[in-house]
Amino acid sequence: MIRVAAAVIENEEGLLLIARRKPEKSQGGLWEFPGGKLEEGESPEACLRRELMEEMGIEIAIGAFFGQNDHFYDAVHIQLIAYQAKHTAGEIRLADHDQYEWVQVNQLMNYEFAPADIKFVQMLMQA
Q1: Mean pLDDT in residue range 117-124
Q2: How far is C-alpha 80 from the chain's CA centre?
Q3: Residue ranges of the domains in the chain?
Q4: Dihedrals φ, ψ of 22, to 5°?
Q5: What is the mean pLDDT of residues 24-52?
Q6: Which of 13, 40, 82, 83 is the most exposed place for a label (fewest CB within 10 A)?
Q7: Closest of 55, 35, 56 to residue 47, by C-alpha
Q8: Residue 74 pLDDT > 90
Q9: Does 73 score more than 90 pLDDT?
Q10: What is the predicted pLDDT for the residue at 21?
């Protein structure tokens, strides 16, 4: 099982940050809530702070636990753990993604998300 943390990041205007995976990456071309794989002994919160700085050059304040989704890509089991977060500092510089957008919740349905992230899109749309 691969444990992955994802952040549902909101800015001052209440928009959510989504990012598109580079074409050559696994799930390339699909949108996701940014985050990354947990390292051995790392908490999801610490992982998110590290990954968002490494992949996007931004700092976030971690909020409440948002949800968990267990998804299987063929034989690979992904446990996706999501937290709400606020963007606190930094201008976005992309490393693992080729595009990002700040979107309203009702715009999420206009993007094709990675399968493991779809549960969180549905939860946000129903809130």
Answers
A1: 97
A2: 9
A3: 2-126
A4: -60, 145
A5: 96
A6: 40
A7: 35
A8: no
A9: no
A10: 95
What is the pLDDT at residue 18?
98
pLDDT at residue 75 is higher than 90: no
Q: How many residues does this entry show for the chain?
A: 127
**What distance in Å separates the CA atoms of residue 38 and residue 60, rounded to the nearest whole number?**
17
Backbone φ/ψ region at 67: left (φ over 0), alpha (ψ -120 to 50), beta: left
As a whole number of angstroms, the distance between CA 84 and CA 122 comes to 15
Following DSSP, what letter does each residue of the chain receive, concatenated? -EEEEEEEEE-TTS-EEEEEEPTTSTTTT-EE-SEEEPPTT--HHHHHHHHHHHHH--EEEEEEEEEEEEEEETTEEEEEEEEEEEEEE-----SSEEEEEEE-GGGGGGS-B-HHHHHHHHHHHH-
- CA nearest neighbour of 7 among 22, 78, 29, 46: 46
Question: 78 — alpha (psi -120 to 50), left (phi > 0) or beta?
Answer: beta
pLDDT at 12 (0 to 100):
94
Tally Cβ neighbours within 10 Å of residue 109: 11
**What CATH number is given for 2-126 in this structure?**
3.90.79.10
Mean per-residue pLDDT for 69-91?
Answer: 94
